Amino acid sequence: MKKKILASLSVLALGGAIASAPAMAQNVKVAYLVAITGPIAGMAPTMVQSMKFAAEQVNAQGGIGNGGKLDPQVYDSGCNPQLATDAATKAVNVNGVIGIVGPSCSGPVIAVANSVSVPAGVLLITSSGTSPKISTLDDKDLVFRTVPSDDYQGRALARTIRARGIDKVAITYLNNDYGLGLAEAFTDEFKKQGGTVTASRAHEDKKASYRSDLAELAKGGADTLVVFAYGNSSGLTILRQAIENGFFKNFVGADGMRDEGMVKTLGPDNLKTLLVSAPAGATGTGFEKFSKDFKAAGGDPNGTFAATSYDAAFLMALAIEKAGGDKAKLPQALREVATAPGEPILPGEWAKAKKLIAEGKDIDYKGAAGDQEFDAHGDVPGDYVLYKVGGSGFAEIERMK
Amino acid sequence: MMEFLNFYVVPGIVTGSVYALGAIGITLIFGILRFGHFAHGDLATSGAYLALGATALLGLTPWAALPVAMVLTALLAYGIHRLFYRHLESRPKILTVIASLGIGMMLRSIVQVVWGVDPLAYGSGIARAQAFGPLMLRPREIATLALTLALVAALLAFLRYSKWGKAMRAMSDNPDLARLCGVDNDRVTRLTWFIVGALAAASGFCLGINTELTTMMGWSAMLSMFAAAVLGGVGRVEGAVVGGLVIGLAEELSVLLVPGPYKSATAFVILLAILLLRPQGIFKGKVL
Question: Which residues, if any, are the signal sequence (chain A) (predicted)?
């Protein structure tokens, strides 16, 4: 008899626990939208791994809210606006995610924001879309990024080049969001600094000859050519043909041109007059902490977009915690947890952050890829370094302002 | 004036030669085997990379590696025919066309697996031009033009005067009639694939030595090659050569009139105009 009562009591208790579990421990779904297929598929594994790593840390250190877990769902964005929009639609409308980390590549970010996430009021944090066009989206403060806009790079490069005494340049850029964004930012800033842009022409990728394009560009009389393209594609061909035919004396490029294969192919001696800018490698205590933890978990902290992807995923979790899982409060919460003032939170310090948020204290996330202080556009500033060709690779000349 | 010749006409002719070598292969397949071969660009890519392989493995200079690559690519083209296209011969031609798209992707992927996706070159460093009077030419450009001329002349002579060349032309005119007259269609097909493969390798090699080797090089150039083949008249070798040169020149000269990104569109526009206005092409080829 006693046993029976005990048994029925425990069944009741169990039933009660099961019934009340969803109310107490609410799992929160977020989408990790990464270009697992497509042109940047090589970078995707590290990006997914670092995002998942952030989620694991969150769940290991107390999860979300009162016993809930972060439930990350990985989708393929294919670096393609169409695929990314389809995946985002499924994530938001079918699976009910409250935030999107990603998508990869600039074009998909713009497409997903315009047609899916902003209309649905879903927060989006991309870790790899760098086009300046993302800043000016009509996004109702729902689009953020943990990777600096190319606008910063274009402007920093223009100021640095101008400060080095170059006052007349011709620009050729790849006909896509990357090339156009850089060219516009560079041109604007270069003119503000009193420089002259004699010609600015887009070019098509993968052509056998750019000599006629170069001849047109050279007509303005500039002896410096600025190339916003990729050094493993049209940038290489353009540089080769410009040097071989003596169209220009000096060359300037952005991070796409910082390609060691290009130096090997053309020979370092021929590229003495080439200057390229590239984002400075992450440093600081935030990166060191992430680097140590991520390495211990079997990841490569220096992988392309590894640190920015981690930050995007971790910030998303912080914002959800701060907003108490309320979708509408996420953007405001994200700004509060990411920006100063507040108690500094380093990558992986989830338990500490959770405690402070519960106590109602303000926190300030100091991320793996940088401070992650968002401006009005939801952008973060970047640090860039100017390189020249040295040895068989690139050597740092100066930090750019 | 000299600027016009050196920076617009010379590159146009060099690029045009590359297109011409590719277009000859396309036009031969179109004429004799009667289908559009969409793996042709990637066959050219394979040839270019096989030449690179020969320089690395056998220690040959790039130009000495070219014949090796031509032979290997000829065998590769024939192998593809034996393994894939031959089984589709009696089916509607559209099946072979679509199959060739798949073959192209396979070839490209194999190249990517073996050599990687980063661009490579036959040699490092750069070659400045030498002056020939007012003309500025690089040795590799002269060699490209000479090679194109030699291959075209040899091919035309072969088609005109040799027994097998005549058989190829007969099969191009009417395969059934040719068979009735004792032409061995299988052997003509085999011969066609050997020639096509060798020419594709030459085309890819010339593209590679004048720029770089990338795994997408052939695929990107193929549209222009198809435009050249149609422009010259399908099935006409001399037409493919003229067509290639016209397309190459038109692409380079187009930047004088339209913005640079429309360079590739020039070939499209010419292709459309030809199909609308003169579908038989300049040299009266087959109407598709």
Answer: 1-25
Q: Does A351 touch chain B (CB under 8 A)?
A: no
CATH fold of B2-120+134-277: ABC transporter involved in vitamin B12 uptake, BtuC (1.10.3470)
Topology of the domain covering A151-280+383-400:
Rossmann fold (3.40.50)
Determine if the pTM surpasses 0.95: no
CATH number of A26-147+305-365: 3.40.50.2300
Once rounded to an integer, what is the mean pLDDT over residues B19-46?
96
Determine which of A207, A233, A266 to mutate to test the interface with B (most B C-beta atoms within 10 Å).
Answer: A207
The alpha-carbon gap from B181 to the nearest alpha carbon of chain A, in Å, equals: 45
pLDDT average, residue stretch A145-167: 94
Kindly list the residues from chain B whose CB atom is less than 8 angstroms away from the CB atom of residue A264.
124
Judged by a CB distance cut-off of 8 A, whether residue B222 touches chain A is no
Tell which of B9, B19, B137, B263 to mutate to test the A interface (max A CBs under 10 Å): B263
pLDDT at A381: 87
What is the per-residue pLDDT for A6? 53
Q: What pLDDT score does A156 carry? A: 94
Q: Annotate B48-68 with b (16+ C-beta within 10 A) or e (fewer).
A: bbbbbbbbeeeebebbebbeb
User: Is B212 touching A (CB cutoff 8 A)?
Assistant: yes
